[in-house]
Amino acid sequence: CIFTGTHVMEGSGRMLVTAVGVNSQTGIIFTLLGAGGEEEEKKDKKAKQQDGAAAMEMQPLKSAEGGEGDDKDKKKSNMHKKEKSVLQGKLTKLAVQIGKAGLVMSAITVIILVLYFAIDTFVVNKKQWLPECTPVYVQYFVKFFIIGVTVLVVAVPEGLPLAVTISLAYSVK
């Protein structure tokens, strides 16, 4: 098996090319990563342009009902562009799951901090909620909310799919 960029140091041999471009092993990997889709789209556009000239001659005049076929073709082409590779789909699903777990953990963190503060202040130390102390207590609650938001922001990996895709693309090279 010989890949692009393989060097033969000495000797002689014969080679049978079985696949090139997007059909080769490297092309398949790039297609799965979403990098090879651009080349396929260019080939599809060229083929559609060539076929489109012949098809234009055979199409009847458009009526109010006749425009539906064009809309379906546009929807299909948009659907094709929005397709994700298997890797991108799994990474997106993983990022969503991590985001949900981060949301749950941040909510639990805020609840625990508020309960700990309330129990420690009002039950253990037996302080009463005085009107003049309300601004101080509100500051504590805002601080707990900020800690919860910080946990949420740190837990959501927005760049995870991009980082993994780039690292895999470089490792393929």
Automatic annotation (TrEMBL):
InterPro entries: ATPase_P-typ_TM_dom_sf. The keyword 4Fe-4S does not apply. GO terms for molecular function: P-type calcium transporter activity; PDZ domain binding. The keyword Transmembrane applies. One of its GO terms (biological process) is regulation of cytosolic calcium ion concentration. The chain crosses the membrane at residues 103-124, 144-170. Residues 40-49 have a biased composition (Basic and acidic residues). Residues 40-84 are annotated as: Disordered. It comes from the Eukaryota. Keywords: Magnesium, Membrane, Transmembrane, Transmembrane helix. GO terms for cellular component: postsynaptic density membrane. PANTHER family: CATION TRANSPORTING ATPASE, PLASMA MEMBRANE CALCIUM-TRANSPORTING ATPASE 2. This is AT2B2 ATPase. The gene is Atp2b2_0.
